[in-house]
Amino acid sequence: MSEGFSRIFRGTRPVDWVLAGALTSLGTWLMVENVVFLGEHAATAIAEGAMVHEMTSDSWLMVPVFALATLSVLWWRRSVIAVTAFALAVMVLHDVLFGWVTRCGAGLPLAFVLVYLGALALERRQAFIVLGLTSLLTAAVLVVDATTGLEPLALALPILVILFGTGRAVRHRTAMNAELRARTLQLRRLRDERVALEVSSDRARLSRQLDGLLQERLGQLTTAAESGQHLDPDSAKALFETIESESRATLDGMRDIVGLLRGGDVALAPAPNVAHIDALLARHTRADSRLTVSGDPRSLPATVELSAYRIIEHLVTVLADRADSRIEVGVRFDDDVLEIRVNGPVDRSADVRAAVARARERATFLGGTLDVKVSRHHADAVAQLPVLG
Q1: Using an 8 Å Cβ cutoff, are 316 and 350 in contact?
Q2: How far apart are the C-alpha atoms of 23 and 334, rounded to whole Å?
Q3: CB 49 within 8 A of CB 118
Q4: Nearest in space to 11 (alpha carbons), one of 84, 86, 72, 77
Q5: Which of 39, 99, 128, 262 has its CA 20 to 30 A from that of 245?
């Protein structure tokens, strides 16, 4: 039983219940007014021009029959055409059974709602079918309407056309927005693929550099070691110290290249660093962007400078570029820590969580930290990167 009941109302949403409930309540109130309307008042209303015909029925059956037409709106998502055709059939039946009663107060809103939903939900050809059916529904509402008669038909039909055009415009705009979102996702995917290809290419180049460095340095060390076979102890000791120093330099170079390969920070020429932050902020052409540098500015290890730039880039990207926006970036050089501060209004359409995750990954890779607070669409971020050596 419950499964059959849920199957009947499958696909309906709360807004459908509200819409059908409002139309049914309006229709019920109107039909009850028809039933309790006293006959002696009709002559007075007709004489005053408030009615065009006397009521020909006071049956309570007109209440549930009219409710059939309005309740059918619950199922418009399944087929607007079927719901409109059913409402038209019910209205014609209502005309035949009860004759001259007042229907326009609830029947016209029903037609207006259905024509808008049809224009919004259906393709062009099917939407025009709904327009035709709602035009017939409007005529069925007014043909034996005791209050208005057919005179309002000249006004109701243009309203139907206006609502139909509004629904088509909303549908077109919604489709355009969906297409723009799809294209944006496709462009992002293509951009990520291009970046991945560039990263792969640069990693291959770095691998070749690493191989060349090892071959060159090992060749030099081998030559130096072979030249010490016939040296006296003091000269041999000096030679071994030189070999040790060169070996350490080789290991340092290997660590730099391997660090780039592991972290994905491919060294493009020139690699961005702290000195390029001004140019990064200049991309926000409308916002009031400001950079403050304090402490003891100096050259830092390449990985620290690159990570600092990338962290600021990730964070600034999600800030709003508006004329009333103020973006502040602060960089402080301490003895063993590079501190970065970024604050400004957040762009409502930006993916803040993804940007913060990428920035935090940069900081964590160097053993640093990143704290971000977002309150009332305003972000305040503080990153600290350890400076070694």
Answers
A1: no
A2: 70
A3: no
A4: 77
A5: 262
Q: What is the dihedral of CA 15, 21, 24, 28, to 10 degrees?
A: -160
Question: Rounded distance, CA 378 to CA 43, Å?
Answer: 68
The verdict on whether omega for the bond into residue 297 sits within 30 degrees of 0, i.e. cis, is no
- Contact between residue 254 and residue 206 where contact means Cβ atoms under 8 Å apart: no
Q: What is the pLDDT of residues 205-221, one digit of tens each?
A: 666 766 676 677 666 66
* pLDDT, average across residues 84-94: 95
3-state secondary structure of 12: coil
Which residues lie across from 383 on neighbouring strands? 340, 370
Strands of the sheet containing 378-386, edge to edge, are 288-295, 326-333, 337-345, 378-386, 369-375
Residue holding tokens 């660093």? Answer: 273
Rg, Å, the chain Cα set? 38
- Residue 322 tokens, joined: 């508006």
For residue 136 the two structure tokens come to 């017939």
How would you class 310 by CB atoms within 10 Å of its CB: exposed for 0-12, middle for 13-18, buried for 19 or more? Answer: middle
- Tokens 């570029």 sit at which residue? 321
Q: How far apart are CA 29 and CA 20, in angstroms?
A: 14
369: its two tokens: 């930290």
pLDDT, tens digit, for every residue of 353-388?
A: 888 988 898 888 788 999 999 888 889 999 999 986
> What's the confidence (pLDDT) of residue 268?
42
CA gap 94, 211 in Å, rounded: 90
C-alpha count within 13 angstroms, C-beta hemisphere, residue 128: 2
Q: How many Å apart are CA 95 and CA 27, to the nearest integer?
A: 15
- List own/partner pairs for 118-122 with CB under 8 A and 24 or more apart: 118/80, 118/81, 118/84, 118/164, 118/167, 119/163, 119/164, 119/165, 119/166, 119/167, 119/168, 119/171, 120/167, 120/168, 120/170, 120/171, 121/76, 121/77, 121/80, 121/171, 122/80, 122/81
Q: Given this model, what pLDDT does residue 34 score?
A: 87
Question: In the chain, where do the E strands start and end?
Answer: 288-295, 326-333, 337-345, 369-375, 378-386
Residue 342 exposure: Cα atoms within 13 Å on the Cβ side: 30
